[in-house]
Amino acid sequence: MREDRPRKPTGSRTPSRFSPQRPQARPPSRPQSRPAQDRSQGGTSWEKSADWYDRILGEKGSELYQAVVIPQALEMLAPKRGERVLDLGCGQGVFSRALADTGAQVTGIDAAPTLIAKARSYQSRTPIRYYDRDAASLGGIGEFDAASAILCLQNMEHLEKVCASVSAVLKPGGRMLWVLNHPAFRIPRQTSWGFEGNPIVQYRRVDAYSSTIGVPIVMHPGKADSETTMSFHRSLETLTRMGFEAGLVLSGLGEWYSHKASQPGPRARAEDRARKEFPLFLALLWRKP
Q1: 21 domain residue, yes or no
Q2: What angle do CA 123, 124, 130 make, to 5 degrees?
Q3: CA distance 114 to 30
Q4: Are 12 and 221 in contact (CB under 8 A)?
Q5: Residue numbers of the domain that contains 249
Q6: Which of 121, 176, 244, 253 lies deepest, with the highest CB count within 10 Å?
Q7: Is 286:249 a contact under the CB 8 Å cutoff?
Q8: In 10 A of CB 159, how many CB atoms?
Q9: Using one digit for the tens of pLDDT, what is the confidence trace for 189-229?
Q10: What is the pLDDT of residue 76?
Q11: Is residue 73's pLDDT more than 50?
Q12: Could you tell me if residue 208 is inside a domain?
């Protein structure tokens, strides 16, 4: 079974498409809130890998973005024509353009200047403002009816500062959508697939969940001078506490599954069942009172 979707390499594994035993692997995600030295010295930023990341997602995003993430994120956030929407960690603007197509007035921010330049190079039917900004420092860009953070929060070290920063620029009644790799089932180096039994059952092994951990990610395994970044795992309790402490109210939750089906084979039935039992993504919808 394969899922034709790019993912960010984890640990020392090679950046292969997908192995037959990984039916729900993660798409790429990028750091947005990072220490100051990352801006001046490169640090663990994805700035050095911006061209590689753009080749993976391009103008429209991966198949999973198109089939799962974008339609369900738009349905949950429900942007309205004329609303001002902030897209955090926008990268090359894949979700920003989807928002703009609804008639929303979109502002996209990303900490990687090259990705912002890529975003500006792609056309959209509605003009989009793009800024090279850290998500933890949003002063001066205006007030918003809604905000989105699509597959970038797990790469933000100071998430509590990001939550407070976004809450400050949301209008009363404004909403914010988080979409993350599922924190219970998709933890770098702490979760894996296995098979057992007759009939064959595919199971998900979870070696750690409660602890908040930062996992170094090698961007180009096998390359001697490859840069690294960090992926931060937080439990659901930790994640929601940060939203609550920022003064937000949780008003919606979704768990999103793969749309794929395995090719015929001895493990296909087990893989298809596991694919529908273990969600890829967690979506949280917040509102500002």
Answers
A1: no
A2: 85
A3: 13
A4: yes
A5: 36-287
A6: 176
A7: yes
A8: 25
A9: 999 999 999 999 999 999 999 999 998 877 666 676 666 77
A10: 98
A11: yes
A12: yes
CB 56, CB 29: distance < 8 Å: no
User: How many independent structural domains does the chain possess?
Assistant: 1
Query: CA-to-CA distance for 46 and 155, rounded, in angstroms?
Result: 10
Q: Which two tokens stand for residue 52?
A: 């590689």
Evaluate if residue 2 carries a pLDDT over 80: no
Vertex 251 angle, CA 245 and 253, to 5°: 100
User: Over the Cα atoms of the chain, what is R_g?
Assistant: 18
Q: Retrieve residue 142's tokens.
A: 């205006």
Is residue 106 within 8 A of residue 99, CB to CB? The reply is yes
The reply to whether 220 falls in a domain is: yes
**What CATH number does the domain containing 43 carry?**
3.40.50.150
Q: Which of 185, 85, 63, 103 is nearest to 145 (CA)?
A: 85
Q: In the prediction, which pLDDT does 39 show? A: 34
User: Which two structure tokens, joined as six digits, stand for 10?
Assistant: 């984890």
CA dist 137 and 85 (Å) reads: 17
Q: Which residues contact 125 (CB under 8 A, 6 or more apart)?
A: 100, 101
Whether 126 is in a domain gets the answer yes
Residue 173 vs residues 135, 146, 176, 282, 283: alpha-carbon distances, Å: 21, 9, 10, 22, 19
pTM of the model: 0.80
Coil, strand, or helix at residue 20?
coil
Phi and psi torsions of 267, nearest 5°: -105, 0
Mean pLDDT over each residue of the chain, to the nearest integer:
82
**Orientation of helix 113-121 relative to helix 50-57, angle to 10°:** 40
Pairing of strands 249-256, 281-287: antiparallel
